[in-house]
Amino acid sequence: MPSLHNRLPLQAPIVLAPMAGGVGTPALAAAVSNAGGLGSLGAAYLTAGQITAEVAAVRTLTSRPFAVNLFTPQRVLPVSALDVQRALDELAPFHADLGLAPPAVPEQVQQDFHAQFGAVLASRPAVCSFAFGRLDGRDLARLREGGILSVGTATSVPEARMLQADGVDAVVVQGGAAGGHRGGWWQDDLAETVALTRAVSSALSVSVIAAGGLMTADAVQAVLQAGASLAQCGTAFLLADEAGTSVPYREALLADGAHTTVLTSAFSGRPARGLSNAFSRSVRSPLPYPHQNALTRPLRAAGARAGRSDVLSLWAGEGFARARSRPAAAIVGDLTP
Ligand SMILES: Cc1cc2nc3c(=O)[nH]c(=O)nc-3n(C[C@H](O)[C@H](O)[C@H](O)COP(=O)(O)O)c2cc1C
After folding, report:
1. Ligand 1: centre distance to CA 232 (Å)
2. Per residue in 142-188, pLDDT tens?
3. Hey, where are the domains in the chain?
4. DSSP assignment, residue 38?
5. Which has the closest alpha carbon to 289: 171, 142, 66, 131?
6. Going by CA atoms, what residue is nearest to atom 15 of ligand 1?
7. Residue closest to 331 by CA, chosen among 237, 207, 263, 201
8. Which tens digits make up the pLDDT trace of 188-225?
9. H/E stretch holding 16
10. Is residue 180 left, alpha or beta, with left meaning phi > 0 and alpha meaning psi from -120 to 50?
11. CB-CB contact of 66 with 43 (8 Å)
């Protein structure tokens, strides 16, 4: 089967990682697509109406292929009143510091996946990528019928095999260095990216997209040599001119040696890699995803408005010190071997 790179086709072997929650913008996705890579819209936290509007915004800026990314729906585990109180107690000093009332416990903790998926089908991007699990066979068939290529996310060889068996067109393999949420659902090896790429590429016949810590053309070349057909890069674009990265987030990324990255569930209830800050260091009893994500949303929004990086989820991969403030097209050029 021809690789995803040739099926689209692309001029540069670079996929912009979908970055839900504000970093990814239509302008960033379009700029990467216009530079010959595959731009992605991180749509996981958007309503169906917002997805339709953002896809339309991308189309005003590019006629090249791009991807839309969703999180597969998660089983919402019941949480006890005691767990909720414990989580609220941990957040209380941060709310007090920002002058916020304790949040009401949200009733709707995740987006309506079927509405989101319907909006993606109707807007017909070239690619629909997804993380956190598997799509059911009916949804994969609907993508195929709509001429939309499907891309799942794996953090280990067994997950990659399951996605291939489901019938996806390509698999993103996410190494342990990657910024943002861990994208798998069953077994996470936190593996070194080149080794995982090699292992998955030799186990699968569908295209492999390598992700995690790819900050230079040499690193991209190494994953292509290990069998990937494309490299998916997120952290390399955090400081791009077109990114929606807030000012305090940019400042934290650029602060001299002040930060390291950590895997934390403090913000959302699922492990994700970001710069260590006061919030990730102090929250020890988060609710399971997606409850914690919904519970911390008002605090994160207020922190962004107040310029307070100590309460923001500063998602970043281990390579963040090599991120550069440049137009996205120049970053695609820097990453292309
Ligand atoms: C700010 C940020 C947000 C992210 N959001 C998403 C997302 O919405 N969906 C997704 O599949 N992956 C998301 N990721 C993970 C990326 O797809 C990818 O695995 C990661 O960026 C690759 O590692 P790198 O950051 O070292 O380049 C995100 C990563 C970052 C840095």
Report:
1. 9
2. 999 999 999 999 999 999 999 999 999 999 999 999 999 999 999 99
3. 4-74+110-246+319-335, 78-109+260-313
4. B
5. 131
6. 180
7. 237
8. 989 999 999 999 999 999 999 999 999 999 999 999 99
9. strand 14-16
10. left
11. no
The CATH architecture of the domain made up of 4-74+110-246+319-335 is: Alpha-Beta Barrel (3.20)
Q: Are 69 and 153 in contact (CB under 8 A)?
A: no
Ligand 1 near 178 CB (within 6 A): yes
User: Does the beta carbon of 261 lie inside 6 Å of ligand 1?
Assistant: no
How far is ligand 1, taken at its centre, from the CA of residue 83, in Å?
A: 29
Region of 274 (left: φ > 0; alpha: ψ -120 to 50; beta: rest) is beta
For 218, the token pair is 């040499």
Contact 333, 149 (CB under 8 A): no
Which residue's alpha carbon is at the smallest distance from atom 11 of ligand 1?
A: 131
Q: Which two tokens stand for residue 18?
A: 């979908």
Hey, how many other C-beta atoms are within 10 angstroms of the C-beta on 147? Answer: 8
Task: Among 14, 15, 16, 19, name the best residue to mutate to test ligand 1's pocket (greatest count of ligand atoms within 8 A of Cβ).
Answer: 19
In this prediction, the residues of the chain whose per-residue pLDDT falls under 50 are none
